[in-house]
Amino acid sequence: MSSGTYLQRCIACHSEFDLAARLYVCSRCGGLLDVDRREAIAIDPASLRELWRARKSSLDKRDRSGVWRFREFLPFADDVEVVSLGEGNTPLYDAPRCTDYCGLFHLKLKHQGCNPTGSFKDTGMTVAVTQARRIGARFVACASTGNTAASLAAYAARADLRCAIIVPGGQVSHAKLAQALDYGAKVLEIEGNFDVCMNVIRELSEDGAVYLVNSINPFRIEGQKTVAFELAEQLEWRVPDHLVLPGGNLGNSSAFGKGFRELLQSGLIDRMPRITVVQAAGAAPFARFYAEDDHRAFVNEEHPQTLASAIKIGAPVSWPKALRAVNETGGGVITVTEQEIADAKAVIGRDGIGCEPASATTVAGIRKLVSDGAIAQSDSVVAVLTGHLLKDTDYVMQYHSDSLLAPDGTHIAGNLSNRPIRTSASIGSIKSALSM
Ligand SMILES: [Zn+2]
């Protein structure tokens, strides 16, 4: 398979560009780009499934990666050495307490927070940084609410590339910032929110000084789409009725849409799951847009507000691709409140599964969809958790000590809080604290 099999194509005007063209958007109309194959895969579904299963016992670096294991659907895996940290291969969990909480019979959680840097970003970053090296980029950069920063910093370090990260000053969790610093990236904290960071970085990338690896970069989406492959494989190629995702910059929703579309076109699955995106009510430009009848003008949210910092984004660049995914699958876009996110996160925790706040929008959203009748109790549902619990421990400690405040200052009740207990070191008081 040569890279000549693949090209970049504008999703709006369908202009085609070489795979090696250093573009982020269409140079003719400014539309988003897809990486696509020129012709369909020539291998039959049964052989592909067999091949992918066999690779699980291989020691080849590409086979150890949950992304590159599916490289029949990725560009250039045979032409270059891939930059990999063994990403993907994340668990699909049963979650009995969450299942009850949502009012369902069949709910599973796909935990993308179990990636090497603790978020789903790694599955896209392995492909984008491999592309960066392939086209000779020396300097990679991104704007980030934290997870992309941590991921890019790690992959850039593995690839021996210089790396610049632009983050909104004072708005990124310490854990995420610590990761980027430890991996050796230059971290620039600027005044302004994520959307300001994104504008600055796009300008910086225009003259070619840096290679931009935000999710506007179509190679990120290529890597992230393989999560659909891994998920379908884990479900023995039986697609769930619903797939529910958090919505921030909307690259992930776009990627799942593309992944399931390619699986369907290749005969690996017989239908697509309904893809529903859940946004925090204070950062919900996509939900507002979707609720309009005519879908005419996308209006950015100038001051997005949510404690779920990973999805605190008012100008999501990938919305046209996410809209395509939602529309073609018959899914939807909804919002949940800060209180709903906090409680859902605690329920996920009680299942022994730790996620960051943004991930919990999914369980909060599913509960709402079930109670509204949009999801039937007997439907099969998969929620995608995008980041690990340890990404934002301040939030967790405040919730469990019942001192969490929403961005507008209102108190978020610790309905499921679990406070630490101060006690003396005597056996008697410890037994009494444990009600023994
Ligand atoms: Zn175009």
Describe the structure.
- The chain is built from 15 helices and 15 strands.
- The chain starts with 5 loop residues before the first strand and ends with a helix.
- With 436 residues, it is α/β, with parallel strands linked by helices.
- The strands form 4 sheets. Strands 4-5-13-10-11-12 form a 6-stranded mixed sheet, with helices on both faces.
- The model has no long low-confidence stretch (mean pLDDT 95).
- The radius of gyration is 21 Å and the shape is globular.
- Helix content is 38%, strand content 15%.
- Bound molecules: zinc ion.
- The site of zinc ion has 8 residues, from loops.
Bound molecules: zinc ion
CA(first)-CA(last) distance? 66 Å
Biggest sheet statistics? 6 strands, mixed
- Residue share in helix: 25-40%
Backbone shape: globular
Query: Strand share of the residues?
Result: 15-25%
Strand order of the largest sheet: 4-5-13-10-11-12
**Overall pLDDT confidence:** 95
Which blocks of ≥5 consecutive residues have pLDDT under 50?
Answer: none
Number of strands: 15
SSE order: EEEHHEHEHEHEHEHEHEHEHHEHHEHEEH
* Content-based structural category: alpha/beta
Radius of gyration: 21 Å
Helix segment tally: 15
